[in-house]
Amino acid sequence: MNPDIEKVLVSEEEIAAANKRLGQQLTADYQGKNPLFVCILRGAAMFMMDLIKHVDIPLEYDFMDVSSYGGENTVTTGDVRIIKDLDTSLRDRDVVIVEDIIDTGYTLDRLIELFKTRHANSIKIVSFLDKPSRRIKHVHVDYNGVKIPDEFVVGYGMDYDERYRNLPYVGVLKQEIYSTK
Predict the structure, then answer these.
(1) Which residues form the catalytic set?
(2) Which of 43, 78, 122, 126 lies at a 20 to 30 A Cα distance from 113?
(3) Buried residues in 50-83 as b, exposed as e (16+ CB within 10 A)
(4) CATH class entry, domain 5-69+79-179
């Protein structure tokens, strides 16, 4: 275990089981359709690549980079900025937004409104982690991987100051790592 990690919250085995379960649900729900999976960079990249291995239907995917955090911040600013937009049109598409974690809901609230203006046929959300105790904007999560308590987590794509993304599990970062900056 990385010495900066207080404890493992979601193990590699639990990650694999959640991806398989979510992939099966998405396969069943999108039969006969060609959904567009929109990966919210950077945190959700590992999750989406593992998830779509379990989705057994034709699909397309694209990437969008948005941020409501900055650098070493551990709390959202609430100001959602689009850093990289989609290359694919959403008009008349069944869109599945793929997120690593839903915390306050600010990012997804903004993206749902934006995607509606782009005339998506439907918009569903799949999130690997859900932290409902921190929710400010109440967005509906259609496909939920794992609910977690209000702790600062890293690993499996999620970072602190661009570190820890490559951990194969989700761990709670020791408070002294981020509270001293």
Answers:
(1) 103
(2) 43
(3) bbbebbeeebebbbbebbbbeeeeeebeeebeee
(4) alpha beta
Q: Helices 45-52 & 12-29, crossing angle to 10 degrees?
A: 60
Per residue in 130-143, pLDDT tens?
999 888 998 999 99
Could you state, in order of their start, the residue ranges of all structural domains in the chain? Answer: 5-69+79-179
State how far the Cα of 12 lies from the Cα of 167, in Å rounded to an integer: 10
Q: What is the pTM of this model?
A: 0.91
Give me Rg for the CA atoms of the chain: 16
CA distance 118 to 124: 15
Host H or E run for residue 128: strand 122-130
Q: Could you give the CA distance from residue 181 to residue 148 in angstroms, rounded to a whole number?
A: 25
Angle, CA of 38, 42 and 47, to the nearest 5° = 65
